[in-house]
Design goal:
Layout lengths: L3 E4 L9 E3 L2 E3 L1 E7 L5 E6 L5 E6 L2 E7 L5 E4 L9 E9 L5 E2 L1
Antiparallel strand pairs: 1-9, 2-3, 4-5, 5-8, 6-7, 6-9, 9-10
């Protein structure tokens, strides 16, 4: 799992890592406005359920499309300051990838 560090108002991006036929979840875009509202996008295995986490808290859960692309918009704003976001994906076959 490749975490991404974000600070309110900052953005970061990553590339997906493919291991065999498995695609580990990755960040493409993390945009956070000054009020803490975020839009997070990336890639994972096609049709995987993707969970965006801040520490032990789940910020958002979404599903990757058939191309492995996903977008998540958390319901609540991120608190002010620096944070490390992580991803987990569960494939349709039940495999957990980080």
């Amino acid at each position: 799992m490749t975490p991404v560090a974000v600070t309110t108002g900052a953005a970061d991006a990553g590339a997906s890592a493919t291991v065999g036929e498995r695609t580990k979840p990755s960040f493409d875009v993390v945009r956070v406005n000054p009020n803490g509202r975020a839009v997070i996008a990336g890639r994972a295995a096609p049709d995987a359920e993707v969970t965006v986490q801040l520490g032990n808290d789940t910020l958002a859960t979404t599903k990757a499309d058939r191309f492995g692309e996903w977008v998540a918009i958390p319901n609540n704003p991120l608190p002010q300051g620096p944070h490390e976001l992580t991803l987990q994906a569960v494939t349709p076959g039940g495999e957990r990838l980080r």
